[in-house]
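Lab notebook, page 48
Experiment: co-folding of the full assembly
Goal: obtain a model of how the components sit together before planning crosslinking
Operator: M.T.
Materials (sequences as entered):
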Amino acid sequence: MLSEREVTSTLNMLRNEHLDVRTVTLGVSLFDCVSHDLELFVANVRAKIRRHAAQLVAVCDEVGDRYGIPVVNKRISVSPIAVVGAPFGPDGMIEVCEALDEAAKDAGVDFLGGFSALVEKGFAKGDRALIEALPDALSRTERVCASINVASSRSGINMDAVALMGEQILRVADATAERGGIGCAKLVVFANIPQDVPFMAGAYLGVGEPDVVINVGVSGPGVVKKAIDRALERGCNAQGRPLTLLDMAEVIKATAYKVTRVGEIIGSEVASRLGIPFGVADLSLAPTPAVGDSVGEIFQSLGLSSIGAPGSTAVLAMLNDAVKKGGGFASSSVGGLSGAFIPVSEDSSIEAAARSGQLTIEKLEAMTSVCSVGLDMIAIPGDTPASTLSAIIADEMAIGVINHKTTAVRVIPVPGKGVGEEVSFGGLLGKAAIMAVPGGNAQRFIALGGRIPAPIHSLKN
Amino acid sequence: MEKYTASFLGRDCPGVVAAVSRLFGDMGCNIEAMAQTMLSGAFAAIFVVSAPKEQPDASVDKDACGADCLRLRLEEGLERAGVDLSVLVRPAIAEQWGAGLNCEPFVVTVDGPDRPGLIGGMSRVFGRHGVNIENLKAILGEGGEGKALFVFEVMVPDTVDLGRLRRELALEAGNLNLRVSVQHRDIFEAVHRVSSF
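Observation: model returned without errors.
Model output:
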């Protein structure tokens, strides 16, 4: 028999705290689709995606209904196209991207990730072709997401790639200027990209992954916030002591456990029904613009005036760590990014802090040293120089490389708009006031190019 | 040995279970299963016992036998012990509902304004579909004054059209201005219990 608390707590998580499975992502390896013939390659890719994804949406909905947990998004990730499409030039890459977009549409998924290149140590022919194709590919398609890994702790930072990506991000923004540069919302630059991320825009299926696999992304910032609020309302812990941050960490950890268990049970069942292996559950506190589904609000619950105030990095460090601990105990299949996201436009509370000036890019950068991703969904002036963009990327990559963690940059230079003006991307991507980028000039530094070597693994301080 | 199901209902107080179990022991009965609950000061319990074949006993009606004999002796014993419980005894049910059926456990919650006819309306839907209610709990005041949450733990045979069951439950709940959810029980256990091993 279930206890009263077990029933009411689960219902509250669903009805009032936005608990859901944010994404079930079907990973499809495209290595067996490879051909030097573009037409044949595209046909193979479409056939394989169709074969495995045909039932994805229906099965996710069935399983979601069975457990009463909505599966909000169904998505697909594929092998890095720069690798499997290595023989093709930029025009061929655009054609592949369009085919992927159609395959995603046919499958009924909202995003497909894997228009990706891994260039942390250097470029292969396919990598250059894919990166060159980005402006046209991302402006001509709706559902395809791109990611470029330009750095790793083992290889260092490919500064030529960093310089190139600064330029390409601006070109993608220009190519989608009529929609506020939205193409850049589908493009992420990474250090230490994980091979099994189910969340967009960074999802791709790594070379060490199975032929097909189900990875699940669970969210739940609202659940964490409400759990903290309830504990604070009680005012004391089980022993009657006044609450401290140690108790708050425990609350977050226990809540992360519950949320991860939801992801695992849904993911396992979807995988089982589709007859393919279950990969990972990625518990990442991924906000949406809805009030009550915000990571930023957690900072306020924990006593800060808003995210961005002094103390924010410490709060985020505790939050990210407690989420990983709870998730790690809940499932032996935890993977992906698993932590807290701080995407500015997608989180109403973070966006408000940025708009009011309480949160700056400099503070966001500091916070990314302790969270699971990086500078995310930040709208910046459209006239930001490419070298400044590249330097922002380089700083973020350095944090990831030195700390052996994933970091990423997803910034949107909004053509024709300046600091303080607003841009709206719609839906889950939200809206944002354009933030100021740090001053100074990095042109000569970026022009040096080459590679920042991999860090030493001893003599750590 | 004969197997019986005996149920007890009355005022709850310390020593109730002790009195009942001592009586069974004195009569040479073995308690094979039991469940008890309390509600609003009332005690209710069901015991499944195996009892020795009918024994001549001058203290009870010579015509009584089997379940009746057991009931009379229990009533007499409880009266002697000063415990106020009503007793009902029946031969144990040989085959439980659901034997031979593939069933899955679901939890149906209904919440909103507490009103007469709620349990009856929902239960009739379950009955029509051959869904068995295994536990039913009302949590009064959940969601505010005058509101209630009803939790039906049910077993749903795999022959039941789950979509249709959901629709009919939603319709019934809608007529009563209530919200309904239907979820597999596993999700509650997965979220709140540390391990299923």
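Interpretation: The first strand of chain B starts at residue 2 and ends at 11.
Next step: discuss with group before ordering constructs.
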